[in-house]
Design a protein that fits this description.
Layout lengths: L5 H27 L3 H26 L3 H12 L8 E10 L2 E9 L2 H13 L4 E2 L8 H6 L5 E7 L2 E6 L4 E7 L15 E4 L4 E5 L5 H13 L10 E7 L2 E7 L5 H13 L4 E8 L2 E4 L14
Parallel strand pairs: 8-9, 10-11
Antiparallel strand pairs: 1-2, 2-6, 3-4, 4-5, 5-6, 7-8, 9-10, 11-12
Length: 293
């Protein structure tokens, strides 16, 4: 059953109806062979709204690079990467609903900075998986190539695992946060401080519990402050994202010790700071034998 909403009714009254009335009076004037000029004027008057709507949608549907960047920054509240190049765009509109999507290529430094900025914003949510509205982007950016997915209201950001490509999509019809809750990454809480771990669906709860146990044993999960981390898994490598501790040397050492404890897992820890992402293993101090399992 076709849904008819306010937009459809307005479109019918102000565009379709005048067009039909104009056609009617034009044909009527031809049939009676009288007032052909008046009938022709009615036809022009009926066609005018259709032409104006067509020109509006054609112009509105053709986005320039400047307008794309403007909409990206407005929707995400992020600064467009300086090295960012829009290698592919997709835009579609239907009456007053539209979706905008694009593939943005950038250098690894800008990729890490953008990832850091997203992680530092509370209004972004780590998501498990959502379906792209753009068919073009579905083919060029399959889900298995996505390393991180974050959503904010009606926008989504996919971070490619090559750390040089980000896909941005905005859908005016749907709010990603209002979709089914299984779109969001699941999470588990631990201890009296309710430390929280967000993780993708391709990670088992046993693996999450093992990491949480190691974080507790190394005193990263302590009784002083609630901590939240995210875990992703790519090519059997567990990526642990932690933000806000880049200057906390005790917490950083605890994470290094956690990596040493979990010999059965290949773990890489990334520290998300202000405008930067640091790989922890490059900065770990030697671990004493007491912390090796």
């Amino acid at each position: 059953m076709m849904y008819i909403g306010k937009v459809e009714i307005i479109f019918f009254i102000f565009v379709i109806l005048p067009f039909l009335v104009g056609i009617f009076f034009f044909l009527r004037s031809l049939n009676k062979k009288k007032s052909i000029g008046c009938g022709f004027s009615c036809l022009i008057a009926g066609l005018l709204p259709v032409i104006l709507i067509w020109l509006f949608l054609r112009g509105f549907g053709h986005e320039t690079k400047r307008s794309f960047i403007h909409e990206f920054e407005r929707d995400t509240k992020l600064t467009f990467p300086q090295s960012g190049k829009i290698v592919e765009k997709d835009y579609a509109s239907s009456y007053f609903d539209y979706h905008r999507a694009g593939i943005i290529a950038m250098d690894t430094l800008e990729y890490n900075k953008l990832l850091s900025d997203v992680q530092s914003k509370e209004y972004f949510q780590l998501a498990d998986t959502i379906e792209k509205s753009s068919r073009k982007l579905k083919k060029q950016f399959p889900d298995h190539e996505c390393a991180y997915l974050f959503i904010i209201r009606k926008s989504a950001l996919w971070f490619h695992k090559n750390r040089q490509i980000v896909v941005y999509e905005h859908d005016s019809e749907n709010s990603y946060n209002m979709k089914k809750t299984n779109n969001l990454a699941p999470s588990k809480k631990y201890g009296i401080m309710e430390h929280e771990i967000f993780y993708k669906s391709n990670i088992t709860e046993n693996a999450v519990d093992s990491i949480a146990d190691a974080l507790t044993e190394t005193n990263f999960f302590d009784d002083k402050e609630t901590k939240r981390i995210s875990i992703l898994k790519m090519n059997n490598i567990y990526e642990v994202l932690v933000k806000g501790i880049e200057n906390n040397h005790e917490a950083l050492q605890s994470l290094c010790e956690m990596q040493q404890l979990l010999k059965n897992y290949e773990i890489e820890v990334y520290i998300v700071g202000t405008g930067s992402v640091m790989k922890l293993s490059d900065n770990c101090l030697p671990i004493t034998p007491d912390f090796q399992r």
